[in-house]
């Protein structure tokens, strides 16, 4: 049995064009995620989907029961897949994600999804803190422009800064092509 798992974080309709919180490059990140998911499945790795849902209907995105909160069709969720619903940025916080990983004997996790500067960052750091060996497929992740004190940080710069930080101390960074070739 594989000791690896793929954690697919928040690849949900609201992040895609036409959604309530569109991310820059989400279509390409979604296509890359689909390739990573297919490779992980072919390798026999456990695939776990995370869906973020805010607790109230007046949320800016991922409101409960909405079309926007559903996992996007590009990820191809199957009826027998593990889907974990979270209500916080960190996929481990308030969920059974660690229990699911440990029950499967997982030692290595790969993280993909959205948003690079929030949920990918939090899940990656938490996984490393729990002692898992972590890989992030950087081009299967997406974010959006950020704003700090009136300074706009373009999505590409935000993504690069967060990937750089994660690669420095928390995870190995690979491209979709490299992940698929090695799977």
Automatic annotation (TrEMBL):
Q: Where is the Isochorismatase-like domain?
A: 5-148
Q: Which CDD domains match?
A: nicotinamidase_related
Q: Which UniProt keywords apply?
A: Hydrolase
Q: Which domain of life is it from?
A: Bacteria
Q: Which residues form a coiled coil?
A: none
Gene3D superfamilies per UniProt: Isochorismatase-like (3.40.50.850)
What GO MF terms are annotated?
hydrolase activity
Return the Pfam families for the record.
Answer: Isochorismatase
Q: What's the protein called, per UniProt?
A: Cysteine hydrolase
């Amino acid at each position: 049995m594989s000791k690896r798992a793929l954690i697919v974080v928040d690849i949900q309709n609201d992040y895609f064009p036409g959604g309530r919180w569109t991310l820059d490059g989400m279509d390409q990140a979604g296509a890359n995620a689909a390739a990573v998911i297919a490779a992980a499945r072919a390798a026999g790795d456990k695939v776990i989907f995370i869906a973020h849902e805010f607790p109230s209907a007046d949320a800016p995105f991922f409101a409960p029961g909405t079309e926007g909160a559903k996992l996007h069709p590009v990820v191809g969720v199957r009826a027998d897949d593990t889907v974990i619903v979270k209500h916080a940025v960190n996929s481990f916080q308030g969920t059974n994600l660690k229990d699911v990983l440990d029950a499967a004997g997982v030692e290595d996790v790969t993280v993909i999804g959205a948003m690079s500067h929030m949920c990918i960052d939090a899940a990656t750091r938490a996984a490393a803190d729990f002692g898992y060996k972590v890989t992030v497929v950087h081009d299967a992740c997406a974010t959006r422009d950020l704003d700090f004190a009136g300074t706009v940080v373009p999505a590409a710069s935000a993504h690069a800064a967060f990937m750089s930080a994660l690669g420095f101390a928390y995870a190995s960074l690979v491209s979709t092509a490299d992940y698929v070739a090695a799977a």
